[in-house]
Each structure stands twice: as structure tokens, then as C-alpha cells.
Amino acid sequence: MSLTARVRPAAAEPEGALVLFHGRGADEHDLFPLLDALDPERRLVVATPRGPLALPPGGAHWYVLGGIGTPEGTTFHASYAAASHWLDGFVAEHELGFEGVVLGGFSQGGVMAYSLALGQGRPRPAGIIALSSFLPIVAGFELDLSPPLPPVAIGHGTLDPVIEVEWGRRARATLEEAGAEVLYRETPMFHQIDPDFIPVLSAWIEQLVPPGG
Fold it and tell me: Rounded distance, CA 112 to CA 83, Å?
């Protein structure tokens, strides 16, 4: 199992990287339009990988649903291994360190961002963005919440019928209790991304990966 990704190069030598993982049933094109808004000066090399699974009702997926909070184990572990391999290669290809990499995602993609940023033995990135998502519980997989943790930005809709806002609140509480600095935003929206949160995230990313590297 291997991943493909859509990549937008930096305007010059990249000062860091931003990787966004799409949600269930979408693909590598879904979040790509956000990249110029999140990194308007094109300081970063940015990528949107495609989930390796093709499942009903269509589109690309990162894992089979096993319940909210509990991805199905076999498909999750396979995608986690493939995404880890791809991400490590992407960072190495651009001669970057993970301290200059921000990982983010929406829904299932937020689960992948959390997992790749906080999985046992994984290098810690500069920051994590989780939109309408949750911290996963999967047999055989452990999150490493030992300090120091990277800063985390969480956005969630209070009217979300797919992943209820309580999951975002739980993630915030868990991460703050573990010592993480959390930027948190709730919006009266459904299972979607708040466009007003994007410029906030852009400024947040610039603080984590400041100009000049």
C-alpha cells in the first residue's frame, strides 16, 4: 500500500511544510484550495495526500468506520503505516526537519494528523490542525502524550451530526491536561470547515514556522 499526493511547491526554498489529510470519501483535491489561504506567501511546500482505500459510498478513505472514536483496526494500521512511510519520505525529499512541519486534517484526516503527530515513536511536528475530528482509540496503537507536545489547533461545529462537538471538546481537554497549548474554535456549523477560522490558522502557522525558517 502506497500513497499519492498533490503537491504545491514553495515560491522559493521551502521554509517548512504543511500537509493536510482529507476526510472520508473525499480525495487529494478536496483541501487543496485551502493551501494558498493558509500559506498565502507560499513559504511552505504543501501537500494533500490521498487516502489509500476505495470504499462505499465512493471516494478515498483512510480506514473503515468502526464507530466514532474507534477506527477499525486492520485498515487503520495499514493506512497509518503507509502514511508514515509517505510522510517521512516527503519531509526527507525536501530536506526539512519535522520541527518545521505542520500536520492537519478534516474528520478522518484529522484522525490521521493526530496519529502521525502523536503516535508512539513518531517525530513531533511543529503543530497539529484537527478540524471536526477526534483522538483515536485503536487496539495496538498508542498515542504518546508525554511532554513536550506540539501546539494544536482544533475547530469543530457545534451542530455537527457526524462527529459531535463533544469529541472536539474531549480532545481539547485531553491535550491541555497533557500540557499542550490548544487553539480552540467552536462554530454553529455542521460537519464542515469554518471559513473564518482559516485566516486565524494562517497566522498560527506563521508563528509556528516563522519566516526565515
Answer: 8
